[in-house]
Structure formats: C-alpha cells, structure tokens
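Section 5: illustrative case.
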C-alpha cells in the first residue's frame, strides 16, 4: 500500500474543506455577514516568500534557511486564482489587491494581472486592481505591470534614514532603490501611489517627520500604520505601538493638517490634508481604533485558503474544492455560506483584552507573510 504524502508545509495552519450547501442560490452581489458587512475587497497573496526580513513581519530568526516555504505544487495557478476571483466578483467584490510575501517575486505576475483585468463587476464595471510591494523590483517591473492593467500600487517604506531602513528590512536593502521604484511607478502612471510606513515606537518613529516632509508635494499619499499584533513570531508588545493620534499630533505641530472624509465606507485609513495644500496623508489605527464594523475584506492565501480576518487562526480550503472538481456554482454556494456565517471582529475584541494576551481561542495565529497584508 502507498500512503499519500502530504507536504508538511500544507498542514501549518488549520483549514476546513467548506461544505457545499444543498440548495445553491446564484450570486447576487449582495452577500452580507452576521454583522451586515458586505464582501467588497479581496486580497490575494501570490507568494509566501519575500526577499526582505522586516522584523515585524518575517523575523529572520524564524524565516531562515530552514523555514519550509510552500512548495510550488501547493500554490494556486493563475487560472485557479482567476476562477476564484470571478466567483468573488459575482458575490460583490469590486477591488482586488495582490500581496504576499513579496508579490513581485511571483514569476510572470503580469500574466495574472492581465487575466484579472478582464473581469467585470455584475454592473459591467472594471475592477479596481492594485498591489502592495516592498518596491525592490518595482523600477524594473512598473511598466509591464501598468501595461498588463494594474492601476495603482502601494509601496511599503519604513523610513528615509538608510541605517534605520536597512536594519528594519534586515537584508541591508537601501532606501534609494525603493525611492527609485516609487519614481518609476509614478512616471508610468501607477497612481495615486500610496506609501505605507509601519511605525514602531523607539525603532523608526524619528522618521515620521522626515517621511512627511519628503512626500509632501509628491502626489503620493503617505500612510502611517500602527504596528499590529499579527502572527505569532514578531514578539509584538503594546509599548512599541505609537498610537496614530500621536503621529498626527507630531505632524500637525510641524505641518498643520485637517481631517477629511473617507473615500468610501470600509476604508481602512483615516484621511488628513495639509492645510497648505501639500497633499494628503493617512493613518491606519488597527490597534487603537478598531474598524471591524465596516470590514468588507476577505483574504485568499497563496495555497487557496480563504481567511475572513487578518487575525484568524483557521481558513477555508477553497483549493480542495477546485481540485476536487467542484463546479463554479458549488464553489459560489460554499463561499456564500462561509461569508454569511462570518462573525470576525478581532480588533474590537482585542481592545477589551489584557495588552499582551494571545489569540482568544489559544490557537496559533496566521502569519502576515502567509495571509497577505
Ligand atoms: N511585501 C509587500 C510589502 O511589504 O509591501 C506586501 C506584503 S506585506 C505583508 C503588506 C503590508 O503589511 C506592508 O505594508 C507591511 O508593512 C504590513 N505589515 C506587515 N507586518 C505588519 C505588522 N506587524 N503591523 C503592521 N503592518 C504590518
Ligand atoms: Fe516582506 Fe512585506 Fe513582510 Fe517586509 S512586510 S517581510 S517586505 S512581506
Ligand atoms: Fe477586519 Fe479582522 Fe481587521 Fe477587524 S480585525 S478589521 S474583522 S481583518
């Protein structure tokens, strides 16, 4: 007898194979979860690998040469990703963000973008397709990404001081190369470009003002993200979180800002505008001000597991349905069933927990590099 060998990496996070409901109803684009939240935003992780080792995301002590990244056979193919994306779009998704790991490490990513760019919402509108990247390969790839149909990019950059940034990415990557990537992306029209800075108190908070100064008048929207307690490896501590309120106070003292309205319901960033017309900034206060009540995001991992919350410890194995020969209507029915049962609101619950508590259910929380940011 030959036993089927399941690669270990496939078992790292719990996932159940979704049930296919007996009664299949066609997608209406109006799905709603138990808290009346629609499904609008799908984040697709295209790789769990990265060429950086940001300490808050993939600490090098854990993600070292012995770490078992997913084998190629585990990854969803571009055809599988597009098939699932089409089903999610039928259920109401209007925006797709490609992420990772580092998405630009996935070979021929522009082919996937071309495939996704052909999808349309039920109302016949094109999708909003964007990508989050560390920009290490952006200068080289920006034009082909734009040609394939990518509309915008978000670049992660944690400071302008070279020594601080090299220490934070932990692979000695220079700031200048990220800035070059941003410049080329803007030149080819991947706009409005956003820049994400994760703020860690005592590590890079001295970079807040230099970053603000640099991106004023640049057309790019700089967003400050509170350091989050995602995953189980980054050694997160509350005292390393600098609340967004303080970020805004510091900036306001140097460059006065006023609050402006959100672009749409469910937007994660709170927006501010420089009083002198130098542009816009944002803060994402995932820790100090939970925004679960509007959370319309689903996440699809590289190996086809659907997660309903960044802090979930269990996913739903859509790849099993794909590879077991389920029809589109059956997968759509399973997705509807999962979303309608969704109760996740981790950040709201965390606000009521002791500062250094682990996951509420005691299970290992999924890593950001696996689930995608
Ligand atoms: N590698 C790409 C990048 O860095 O842009 C995409 C994936 S990364 C996981 C997506 C986003 O998550 C990045 O902007 C990163 O800064 C953010 N991120 C990762 N770990 C975080 C943490 N512990 N707290 C807050 N943001 C985090
Ligand atoms: Fe890589 Fe992005 Fe995570 Fe940094 S934040 S380690 S660039 S996946
Ligand atoms: Fe959404 Fe979960 Fe984040 Fe709340 S904690 S905003 S439910 S991803």
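Designed sequence:
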């Amino acid at each position: 007898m030959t036993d089927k060998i399941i690669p270990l990496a496939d078992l790292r996070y719990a996932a159940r194979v979704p049930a296919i409901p007996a009664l299949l109803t066609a997608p209406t684009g109006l799905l709603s979860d138990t808290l009346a939240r629609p499904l609008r935003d799908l984040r697709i992780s295209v790789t769990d690998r990265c060429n950086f080792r940001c300490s808050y995301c993939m600490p090098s002590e854990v993600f070292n040469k012995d770490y078992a990244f997913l084998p190629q056979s585990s990854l969803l193919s571009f055809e599988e990703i597009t098939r699932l994306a089409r089903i999610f779009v039928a259920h109401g998704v209007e925006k797709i963000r490609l992420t990772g790991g580092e998405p630009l490490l996935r070979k021929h990513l522009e082919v996937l973008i071309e495939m996704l760019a052909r999808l349309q919402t039920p109302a016949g509108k094109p999708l909003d397709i964007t990508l989050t990247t560390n920009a290490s390969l952006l200068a080289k790839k920006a034009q082909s990404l734009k040609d394939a149909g990518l509309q915008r990019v978000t670049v992660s950059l944690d400071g302008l001081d070279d020594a601080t940034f090299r220490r934070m990415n932990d692979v000695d990557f220079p700031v200048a190369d990220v800035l070059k990537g941003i410049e080329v992306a803007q030149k080819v029209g991947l706009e409005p470009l956003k820049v994400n800075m994760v703020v860690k108190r005592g590590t890079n908070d001295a970079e807040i003002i230099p970053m603000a100064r640099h991106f004023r008048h640049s057309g790019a929207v700089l967003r400050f993200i509170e350091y989050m307690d995602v995953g189980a490896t980054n050694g997160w501590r509350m005292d390393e979180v600098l609340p967004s309120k303080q970020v805004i106070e510091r900036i306001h003292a140097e460059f006065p800002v006023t609050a402006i309205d959100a672009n749409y319901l469910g937007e994660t960033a709170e927006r501010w505008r420089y009083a002198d017309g130098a542009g816009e900034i944002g803060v994402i206060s995932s820790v100090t001000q939970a925004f679960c009540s509007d959370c319309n995001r689903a996440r699809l991992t590289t190996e086809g597991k659907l997660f309903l919350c960044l802090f979930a410890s269990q996913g739903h194995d859509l790849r099993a349905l794909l590879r077991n020969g389920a029809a589109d209507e059956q997968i759509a029915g399973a997705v509807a069933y999962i979303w309608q049962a969704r109760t996740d609101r981790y950040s709201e619950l965390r606000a009521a927990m002791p500062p250094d508590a682990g996951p509420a259910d005691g299970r290992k929380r999924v890593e950001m590099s696996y689930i995608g940011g």
